[in-house]
Amino acid sequence: MDTVGELLRQWRHRRRLSQLDLALAADVSARHVSLVETGKSNPSADMVLRLADQLDVPLRERNRLLLAAGFAPRYAERPLTDDALAAAREAVERVLRAHEPYPALAFDRRWNILLANRAIEPFFGQVDPELLRPPVNLLRLGLDPRGFAPMVVNLDDVRTVFGARVRRQLAVSPDPELAALHDELLGTADEEPAHRTSDTGVVIPMIIRIDGRELRLFSTITTFGTPMDITLDEVAIESYYPADAASAAYFTPLPRTAPGAPLSVPFR
C-alpha cells in the first residue's frame, strides 16, 4: 500500500509541479513538502487536505490520502437518491427539465447515466434493449454497434472527441474501470480529429441520422461548483443543442410536467 507521501508525489508529478511549486501554492516550505513525500514527516489531516487542494485532487482520492496518513475519510459518498442529496438531485432534475425539448442527461465518473430528460427517449428506438439495462453507460450507448453508432454519420469525429474527453478525465483522476472501457471502445481513437465536420469551425457536432433526416447537435457540460460529497463531485450534466435551424425544427415542445414527476427511463 502506498504511503501518503508516495501518493502526494504521484499527484504532484501528474500535475507537473516541482516541490517548490507545490510549496509556494500551499504556503509551506519546500523542505516540508520533501519531508512529507519521503515519509520523514507525518502530515496533519489539514496539511494533507491543503496539499490535495493545491493539487486539485478529486474528493474520492482525498479520502485515500487521508486513510494513507492514518486519518478517517472526510468526504461521504451517497447515492443521488439519498435524502441528504435531495436538494442537489432536485437541482439536476431542474436543469434536465428546463432543457427540454432538447436532450440532456446526467452521468457519473464512469459515464453511467443517472438521470435523463424525456427528450432522450426517441433516440432509444433503435438501440438493443440489452444496452438499456442499468447501469446504462453513455460511452457504450454511443459507440457500441448495438447502440447509437449506426445512427452517427460522423462516427470517427465522435470517437475522437469522446476519446480525448476520457483521456483528459483519466489524466486528472485515474480509474481502472474507465481505462478498461476506454481501451475497449476507444483504444484506436485518434488524438485529433482526422477531419472536422463543423460548418463554422467553432464546434464539432454529432450528426445523427434519425427518422429520415440528419440532426446536428453539440453539447455542453455542467458540474457542481463546490461539492463536498463524492457523488456530486463526479456528476456531470451533458446538454445537447441543435447546431442549425433544421435540427432545431425536429424537436417539438413537450407537455409540461409537475415538479417531482419522473424524468425519463429509470436508469438506476
TrEMBL record:
**A GO molecular-function annotation:** DNA binding
Residue stretches making up the HTH cro/C1-type domain: 8-62
Q: Which Pfam families match?
A: HTH_31, MLTR_LBD
User: Which SUPFAM superfamilies does this one have?
Assistant: lambda repressor-like DNA-binding domains
SMART domains the UniProt entry points to: HTH_XRE
User: Protein name, please?
Assistant: Helix-turn-helix transcriptional regulator
From which source organism is this entry? Answer: Streptomyces coryli
